[in-house]
Every structure is written in structure tokens, then in C-alpha cells.
Design brief:
Elements: H1 7-28, H2 32-52, H3 55-74, H4 78-108, H5 113-123, H6 136-142, H7 148-153, H8 157-171, H9 178-202, H10 204-219, H11 222-251, H12 257-274, H13 277-290, H14 296-309, H15 314-328, H16 335-351, H17 357-371, H18 379-384, H19 387-409, H20 417-420
């Protein structure tokens, strides 16, 4: 069947099989089953380490390239700068709303302690504990790494992100095209890391199956309930951001509700079917110009720029995943760690745009987890059930793209009829 050719579906099937086989082994396998499964789990740990080794170089390379791209776009004119400011404001709104929403939801609907303990044991990650963070003065001082290589080696992800952002902007200011030459090096490094991640992800069904065996052995059927709770929580975060974008278009963009609903309906249908903002770009441009009356020069600039550097739901859903991991481990990140996590979420939402879905999940969520002082061992399991939240990610992204276009178009003069023909 064609559906089984999808890596996402294969990984999901592998997770279900791993959980099922692990639970059956716990119930009927006897004393020898745990030893056999633990041996197979080692392969899952090897696969996880292969993913982990690419995180720091990949996030640094894509951030340098992404920030340089943003800098170039902002330098192209007033319209692009206006769109970029809206992108940044909405990404920040997305992150803050997610932190408040997901913490509130998981306080009202807490993750079960028994299932969490079993899931932690199945993931073989560090035991729950209270994360520590420096005081404010030390935290501010640490933002600029005295030794970026040491910071990367110690997984101090926020200083690495800060260094990458400065490097990206600096490369665009070097004379005689020298910055472009060095930027090509970082582009090549990022592409090489993506190739490695793709190689590792080819073995994702086997890796997730091996990890799922351990989770099923120790967590049993309870793991399915916890993962279902994650899917609902992450999807809710994406849905709320999509609704906020919808409201912003009506209030800030001054688009009548009926007109907005008619214009976005075919785009949302395409987003649901394709789960790709890029695939929806032609429809977004057409509906924004023909239905919403956006000037062609605005739609033709803002929407491709939005697809290139803007994912409104990225901070929200990525932070939702991290907060869920924190609840599973019984950890409560400090206020400073949340500030760092939000800053990292904003940066990686720009840097990871355009990466394949499975790659972008790892490169986006892992750095935020590290910034929050959380283990990343559960991420491959969450990746396996990312199929559903990814639908809401795309719905929110295309809604946000069209909302910014409507808002930016509001004060732009209409084009002469001859230019619209």
C-alpha cells in the first residue's frame, strides 16, 4: 500500500508494534524476556545517539544561514521589513501563549504519575529531579559564550544560538562578498548534517521499534494513554494559534469574517491534505489577491517570504512538546529557563523552516529541551506520533501567512487596474 511508504506512518506503525510486543513480553515472556528486550534496546540507544550527534552542528549551521536570509530580506525594503516585524511579533505571541496554555492544560489534566514513571524507565533517561539555573546576573553573563566550542560541547544551547545569530548577521556585513563565501560553508555544513539525519531517519522504524519495546515492557498499555495525551495537547497548541491568526486577520487586518472564511477555506483544505506550507503557496497567493484584494506586489513578496522564514505554530507546538516532556519527568523549569527556551524557540523556528518534517522536529525541539534543562530521550517516541500535530502545525502556519499578508496589505495603496490584469 502507498500509505506504508510514508516514513511517518512507518515510524508510527513501528512504535505501535514495539509497545505491543514489549507489553506482551512483560505479561507472558517470563524471566528471560526483559534481558532480550534490553539487548535490542541498545540498538535504539545507538540510533538515538546518532540523531543527537547532529543537533549542535545542524542548529548552528541552519541558524547562521537562516539569520543571514532574514537580514537580506529585511534589507530589500520597507514592505519586507514591515512583514518581518509582524513575523517576529507573532512568533513571540505563539511562544508565550503556548507556555501559558500548555502549562494550564497539563495542570488541569495532569500526566498520570504511574504511566509517567513507566515511560521514563522505558526511555532510559535520567531520573526526575529539580533543574537548576543560575541567578539572573549569571544567566545574562552566560548569554555571550566566552568559548563557543566549549558551550557546544556542554550542550549550553542558548549561548550557541546567540553566537549563531550574531555570526549570521555579521556575515552579511563583510565586504567584497567574503561573507557569502563563508555562508556557503555553513550552508554546506547544514546540508551535510541533513544528509546524515536523513540516513539516520531511514532506520527510524527500527530505532523507534527498539525504543518502543522498552517502553512497552515497562509502561505497558499506560504508554498509549500518555502518548494520546501528548497528541491532544500538541494539537491543541497548534489549533489555538491557528484560531489566533484567524482572529488577527479579522481584527488587525479588518477582513470581514465571511470573506476571510471563503478565502482561506481552499487553502486550509490543501494544508490538511498536504501538510506543507510550500505546497499551499500558489493557493495562498491566488486567494490573497483575488478574494482578499491584497495588491499583487504585497502578496508576491510577503507570502513567499513567510513560507521561507515564518512558521507561526512552530514555537507553540515545539514548546508544547518540551513542556509535556517536563511533566513526564516531573520537572519544573525556572522562569529564566523558560525565557531561554522561548528565545531558542524563536531562533530555531526561523532556522529550521524548509527542513523535512522529521528533521525539523528533532532540530527544533531538542535545542529547546536542552535550554529548559530536559532530557531528549523521549523525542523519538513523540516523533512517531507527530503525524496528527503536524496537521495542526500546517493549518496554523498557512493561516498565519495569509493573516500577515492581510494586515500588511491594509495600509498599502491599491494597484492600478492595468497592473492587476
Amino acid at each position: 500500500m502507498k500509505i506504508l511508504k510514508s516514513l511517518s506512518v512507518q515510524v508510527l506503525v513501528a512504535l505501535v508494534l514495539g509497545l505491543l510486543v514489549g507489553a506482551l513480553a512483560a505479561a507472558y515472556g517470563g524471566e528471560g524476556a526483559p534481558r532480550v528486550i534490553e539487548s535490542i534496546e541498545a540498538l535504539g540507544g545507538l540510533w538515538l545517539n546518532a540523531l543527537r550527534m547532529t543537533v549542535v552542528p545542524l542548529i548552528f549551521a541552519v541558524l547562521v544561514s537562516g539569520i543571514a536570509q532574514v537580514s537580506d530580506a529585511a534589507a530589500t525594503g520597507r514592505l519586507a521589513m514591515k512583514a518581518m516585524l509582524w513575523f517576529l511579533a507573532l512568533l513571540l505571541l505563539s511562544a508565550v501563549v503556548s507556555v501559558l496554555l500548555v502549562n494550564g492544560v497539563l495542570t488541569a489534566w495532569p500526566v498520570g504519575e504511574a504511566a509517567s514513571a513507566a515511560l521514563r524507565a522505558g526511555a532510559q533517561a535520567p531520573a526526575a529531579g529539580t533543574p537548576t539555573a543560575p541567578d539572573f546576573a549569571a544567566w545574562v553573563k552566560s548569554l555571550a559564550p566566552s568559548n563557543p566550542i566549549k558551550a557546544a560541547a556542554e550542550d549550553a544551547i542558548l549561548p550557541v544560538v546567540v553566537f549563531a545569530v550574531f555570526t549570521g548577521f555579521a556575515l552579511t556585513r563583510l565586504p567584497d562578498g567574503r561573507g557569502r563565501a563563508l555562508l556557503e560553508v555553513f550552508n554546506g555544513l547544514g546540508e551535510a548534517m541533513i544528509v546524515i539525519v536523513r540516513w539516520v531517519l531511514m532506520a527510524a522504524p527500527l530505532g523507534v521499534f527498539a525504543l518502543g519495546l522498552g517502553v512497552g515492557l515497562r509502561a505497558g498499555a499506560g504508554a498509549a494513554g500518555v502518548l494520546g495525551q501528548y497528541v491532544i495537547t500538541a494539537s491543541l497548541a497548534g489549533l489555538v494559534i491557528a484560531i489566533l491568526a484567524y482572529i488577527l486577520a479579522i481584527v488587525a487586518g479588518r477582513v470581514p469574517l465571511g470573506l476571510w472564511a471563503r478565502a482561506t477555506a481552499p487553502v486550509l483544505a490543501a494544508a490538511f491534505a498536504t501538510q506543507s506550507s510550500l505546497a499551499c503557496l500558489p493557493a495562498m497567493i491566488e486567494r490573497s489577491r483575488d478574494d482578499l484584494g491584497a495588491p499583487a506586489r504585497v502578496a508576491n513578496l510577503v507570502l513567499p517570504l513567510a513560507v521561507a522564514v515564518f512558521r507561526m505554530t512552530s514555537p507553540a507546538v515545539n514548546l508544547a512538546a518540551c513542556i509535556f516532556v517536563a511533566k513526564v519527568y516531573g520537572l519544573e523549569p525556572t522562569a529564566l529557563q523558560y525565557v531561554g527556551g522561548v528565545l531558542v524557540a524563536l531562533a530555531v523556528s526561523i532556522g529550521s523552516v524548509g527542513l523535512p518534517g522529521q528533521v525539523s522536529f528533532i532540530v527544533s525541539v531538542a535545542p529547546i529541551c536542552i535550554a529548559l534543562g530536559l532530557p531528549i530521550d523521549l523525542l523519538p517516541i513523540l516523533l512517531a506520533v507527530e503525524v496528527v500535530p503536524d496537521i495542526f502545525r500546517t493549518l496554523g502556519n498557512v493561516t498565519g501567512d495569509m493573516a500577515v499578508t492581510a494586515i500588511v496589505s491594509r495600509d498599502e495603496p491599491a494597484e492600478p487596474a492595468s497592473s492587476q490584469a
